[in-house]
Write a structure and sequence with these properties.
The structure is a homodimer.
Chain A lengths: L1 E6 L3 H12 L4 E7 L5 H7 L4 E5 L7 H11 L4 E6 L4 H10 L3 E4 L4 H12 L7 H14 L13 H11 L4 H8 L3 H15 L4 H10 L4
Parallel strand pairs in A: 1-2, 1-3, 3-4, 4-5
Helix pairs in contact in A: 3-4, 7-9, 8-9
The first copy, chain A, binds a DNA duplex (30 and 30 nucleotides) through helix 7 and helix 9.
Chain lengths: ~210, ~210
DNA sequence: TCTTTTATAACGAAAACGGGGGAGATGTAA
DNA sequence: TTACATCTCCCCCGTTTTCGTTATAAAAGA
């Protein structure tokens, strides 16, 4: 039995979902709300597994609400449903922690499938949405990696990592249980391998090239 | 009629797909190949709408192949199918231009649905894969990341930028046409605003939070 | 108007850093 | 075996950075 909470400002739609869930095998609706003003209390009072979240709502919108729910109830799977097919929304919804994103043009069976899907660890998306997600993924996250290793040894990588964390030579020495001079020696070697001449340069290069 | 090319090294699977496609309404298989050695010529000789691509193949792997196909035939939709449920593969496949990613555990009907889906502009993904994609999306691509501005002034931002580029105080002073002591002063202010106590820490924080 | 912020600049001292050399103890590869 | 690389440590030396404090003029805000 999947417990679902509904946040949807349109009365007709909200009651349609409520009816659909309560008359379908394996689903139960634990709450249907018109806005998110008392959302956290509502969910706390009526626990659920999945939240069906509208984006466009008076007061707090569905994306902000998603973020909040995820902060307080990280285990709840949130299924966004909207009429908006826009990158900005998709992008923000995903980053807010939504696990699925479907359009309101979805059929009732599609809704139930999506809820089942999201609850079993999937991420249902209207086909076109999924394509947009991949496009966003590709364009925003291009090169994957230059993957150059610069031939740093294991110890040197540890030292570089600590350096990137802002540690001083002294602190790095303490952290690795070796002497100050050993760290100096390692760092000197790191600099020559990375072709840099200062800690700031090394950190910059390391972070830009994802060496750490 | 959706024209499909198959790249799959397993003979049994390859022939199964071939049979499935040629006996299903609305599909036709224009070629079934065991490797990608002559892939571009194969596709040029037998045009298709969708490529069903295996990842693990002798010689060129499916991800490299995907990249190549997309370069030469950008309109072809590529559906990756594999036994591997690994972030690294998913990530690279998407970046290579794949439009769908399904596991080989998918049913025959699932395959046909996926092919139809990918051809009509969707991005079919095995439920768990979709979830992984969203996770990767979220972790690799923090939302625009305004986060905190730390109230750095314009001049301080310039100084920080130069610091991140690995410049020394002296070089920064020269670059901004001010005195060495002025830079000392700015950097001191930057550190206190950023709550750091060294250049490496400042650079690290600046890059991580995309302040520059 | 008065106050605050910003950018500029200076001095001094302690701490940290960067570069140079050398050297012994490993373990592995040729 | 002889190399080679790695990790460890030490010394010296000069430079750079960090952290104080102080101060002035300009700009912006109340």
């Amino acid at each position: 039995m999947i417990r679902v909470s509904i946040f949807e400002d349109n009365k007709h739609l909200r009651e349609t979902f409520l009816f659909l869930l309560n008359t379908s095998e394996g689903f139960t609706c634990t709450g249907a709300y018109a806005d998110c003003s008392t959302m956290l209390e509502d969910i706390a009072a009526n626990p659920c597994d999945v939240v069906l979240m509208d984006i466009e709502m008076p007061g707090m919108n569905g994306i902000e609400a998603t973020k909040l729910v995820k902060e307080h109830f990280p285990k709840i799977n949130i299924l966004i449903q909207t009429v908006f097919f826009e990158d900005e929304y998709i992008f923000n919804a995903i980053c807010a922690g939504a696990s699925g994103y479907i359009l309101k043009s979805t059929t009732p069976e599609g809704y139930l499938d999506a809820i089942k899907n999201v609850q079993s660890g999937g991420s249902p998306m209207t086909p076109g949405i999924a394509r947009r997600v991949l496009e966003l993924f590709k364009t925003n996250l291009q090169p994957a990696k230059p993957a150059r290793v610069y031939d740093l040894t294991a110890q040197e990588k540890k030292v570089l990592k600590l350096l990137v964390e802002g540690k001083s030579y002294k602190m790095i020495a303490a952290a690795l249980y070796v002497s100050f001079d050993t760290i100096k020696s390692h760092i000197s070697n790191i600099y020559s391998k990375l072709h840099v001449h200062s800690g700031t340069e090394a950190v910059s290069l390391a972070l830009r090239n994802k060496l750490v």
